[in-house]
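Tokens for chain A. Residues wanted.
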């Protein structure tokens, strides 16, 4: 709800002097051992199998949102309007 988002924004401003921020975003390729029938679904451009973890954290380093996807996607293929 909007009260939660306002608190997150206030926390970023108070703790880090970063106004109007609703979260810190980062992503990581996490190396995996693929299942037998996954084919190339988890094979990434770095030539190993992985899943991509994308996360948004609040000012206290707590996860607000986290998403896992197959490793073949690049960072620019992610949108914020995910279901």
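Reply:
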């Amino acid at each position: 709800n909007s009260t939660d988002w306002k608190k997150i924004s206030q926390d970023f401003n108070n703790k880090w002097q970063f106004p109007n921020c609703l979260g810190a975003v980062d992503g990581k390729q996490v190396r995996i051992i693929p299942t037998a029938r996954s084919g190339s679904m988890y094979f990434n451009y770095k030539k190993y199998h992985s899943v991509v973890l994308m996360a948004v954290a609040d000012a206290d380093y707590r996860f607000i949102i986290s998403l896992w996807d197959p490793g073949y996607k690049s960072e620019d293929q992610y949108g914020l309007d995910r279901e």
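The first helix runs from residue 2 to 16. The beta strands are 24-31, 50-57, 63-70.
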